[in-house]
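Hi support team,

I submitted a single chain yesterday and got back a structure, but I'm not sure I'm reading the token output correctly. Could someone confirm the output below corresponds to the sequence I sent? I've pasted both exactly as they appear in my results page.

Thanks,
R.
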Amino acid sequence: MDYFAFQWHITDECDQRCKHCYIFSEGHPLLIEMPWDRLVAVLDNVERMCQRMSRLPYLYITGGDPILHSRFWDFLELVHSHDIPFTIMGNPFHLTDEVCCRLKKLGCRKYQLSIDGMRETHDFFRKPGSFDCTLEAIATIRKAGIHCAIMATVSGTNIHELPDIIDLVVEHHADIFAFGRYCPTSEDKAMPDKGWHIEPLQYRELLEKCWAKYELYKDSDTTFNLKDHLWTLFLYEKGLFKIPEELDKDTIYDGCNCGNCHFTISAEGRLMACRRFESYVGTVDEELYDVFNGKQMNQYRQHERFEKCGKCELLRFCRGCPAVAFGYARYFYAADPQCWKEL
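Hi R., thanks for writing in. Yes, this is the structure output for that exact sequence:
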């Protein structure tokens, strides 16, 4: 039975104010914590939806920093009692041996941290001391028997440091490494002269460098997750990905999970197709099953509308990142700004 993923932001509270964070991109909003009775109701709603779809729920519990929720441990006890697997996506600042052992006991399979550059760059994005604290937390997480994942957000401001980050995570025995592209949170940050933008061939060059590193470290303790769907185009051009000879014309085989097997739940109870752009589809007070199969969500399944991808043979396997495209063009079906393929 396949999983259905829920990225659940249980609180907006956070120890950091990262420069690329979507929660704080427009200033300092009112920080919301999902109350206990709503946590319980939403979890029941999640289970009802998955039962109707013959899927298994998988929770990505995040925030803000989820550990700052006033009833964080009560919530994990509840999730554990329902035997639902989960990953925590949070900060490193509260991860003692005791905390990580408790997370493991309650069923935490993976803890995801972020590294967005080497020390000076990372601490510029996040806060002073965050880099060293994150590296220390990798060992603490793994010591407790939890897989440690490292996620990087790449933009024009840190693209030159990605190969060094790969060396770093391998050196510290992180279990998983992946990176995704920055989604502009304002029209200003989408402008090339602001330093965040990456040119298409520049991005392809980055994938080439990272692939060389992945090959170098293929026997290491670290698994490299090809999160960005433009990896499919990269491997296709290198002959390492081939389109199956027999295709079901109505099947989407890979690529963006919007409208497929993912929901985002905000701390205020909003449902989104993807947290990386404005994709509101309903609230947790509705039946999640009905929202997922409703009109608002269906707009993210109209793959023939993609302006560039609709003409590409990789439509059913790639589609780049529509959230990044939205950040630039304010339109989900716009061309991916880093796609280098000429049609």
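A quick pointer for reading it: The radius of gyration is 20 Å. Let us know if anything else looks off.

Best,
Support desk
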